[in-house]
Amino acid sequence: MNSAISVRAVSKRFARPGSYTRGLRASIEQAARMPLARVLPQNGRAVAEQERWALNDVSFEIAPGECVGLVGHNGAGKSVLLRILARVTRPTRGEADLRGRVGAVLDVGVGFNRELNGRENIFLQGAILGIKQRDLAQKFDAIVELSGMRDFIYEPLKTYSNGMQVRLAFSIAAQLEPEILLMDEVLAVADQDFIRECVDQLAALKRQGRTILLASHDLALLSQVCTRALWLERGRLNADGAIADVAEKYHAHALVQGAAPDVRQRVF
Amino acid sequence: MTETKIIRVRPARAWNGLDWREVWERRELVAALVRRDLRVRYRQTFAGVLWVLGQPLITTIVLSLLVTRLVGAGPGNIPYPLFVYLALATWAYQSHALTKAANCFIEHSQLVQRVYLPRVLIPLSVTLAALVDFAVALIFLPVLLLWYRVIPGWSILALPLVVILMMVTAFGIGLWLATLNAEYRDIAFALPFVLQLALFVSPMFYASEMIPAPWRWLYALNPMVAIVEGMRWTFLGTQYAPPPDLIFISTVSAFGILCSGFFFFQRREPNLADVI
């Protein structure tokens, strides 16, 4: 199999935030109890209850050039999955292979600095994303053009509105030219026009045969670019198939669950 | 496409080696982070420069007045202000680098949690950026040298070695602090106090020669001993000879801290994004 993305039985466990298994005091206590751990089995159970499996035995394959949407409610594990694939965090179990250069946009404007001006931020952001400074210098005009920030490029970023920052961030990320693009729901803050442009960009990437994995709970947006969808629910893969089929199941499920989406406390 | 790079995602093992080639390929990131730090700090606050500049100078003046009035002259025939100023300049670097390093993963939590990059570069960039503080802190050195008519001898060629030792120490301790502080925020709170204690067990205001024999080796485990005495020897080499045994032990200790810090960081690195 020569999949672009191959995920095999990936699971991810988190300790609950503020749980007893974390922090200096807990660590010292655990260390002190270590010799007694076998004598006091109930301790082990107490710890196990404070864990949460953010991903549970998730497996799928994505062929090169495929454009796949990742749907699910808040806390379903979409972000964790993308972060594992982007190598920001590691799976607790299971493994995954990615064939090709990976570009991950998990958040907008990571590492942007409010005090620096637009130009300085472009070079900083490029370095963070791993674009060579020399390439950035060449693509500088293209980035500025795409973002539409020509008049503000020497202004400090703190004078930019949220939407402007998103535009700038995307214009930089667009220069990544990855073979595999991982994207978390970062379009939520952009305005309709810019979403339109982004969708066009994604479609162009798709035509070039790039592999795209795009997380969102906005199925309408996903169906504009994706042909296939993965549905995560409470860390498990609930459905995998043509986006129309998955959308149908997803909406049916949402109706059963009640109109309000299941917004549980997020772990991160 | 000629060859496709396969990226393997695996659970963390007990030892996860570092991809040195990747670290080298991402060297531009270090430069970018250093540039960012310096730009932000020196653009925002003119006072920032004054602070870095004035801190060692004012401490030197106060101490010199106190010590020369109370105790008499400094050690040997070295002008006491020079003796203290050289030490305090290295201290300005060390305390600043360590404070920044301890907080680097938290301050840049986005870089840790949202992008893939060799994370070891973050504390590294902090220790490099602090070198500018060292340079700024040294601005008054030529004035002091002229005033006391001290001409540095050939020992001044050892300055790069002292700087390297400073960075080894700051990076080594910084890796420990940054990794621990990511998980236990108590570290950053305790740091100012620990730094204050460290100031007294380093040969800042006195010569390490004064430490009594039974305690010398223990005292020398402090890497600041080699840095401070090395710094003094670099500029005052013609009239000042620090004890070589102390310098040797202290230098070994600095490299020991760097190795242990690196191993500790490498062990914890896979979980960094989860514990912050």
Can I get a quick summary?
The complex is a heterodimer of chains A (268) and B (276). By secondary structure, chain A is an alpha/beta fold.
Distance between the termini of chain B: 38 Å
Helix content of chain A: 25-40%
**Helical segment tally of chain B?**
13
| Low-confidence region ranges of chain A | 41-45, 259-268
Shape of chain B: globular
- Strand-residue proportion of chain B: under 5%
Question: What is Rg of chain B?
Answer: 21 Å
Biggest pleated-sheet summary of chain B: none
Largest interface: A-B, 46 and 39 residues
Number of strands of chain A: 9
Mean pLDDT over all positions of chain B: 89
Would you identify the regions of chain B where 5 or more consecutive residues have pLDDT less than 50?
none
Could you please say which CATH topology of the domain at 5-100 and 179-257 in chain A applies here? Rossmann fold
Taken from the alpha-carbon principal axes, the silhouette of chain A is: globular
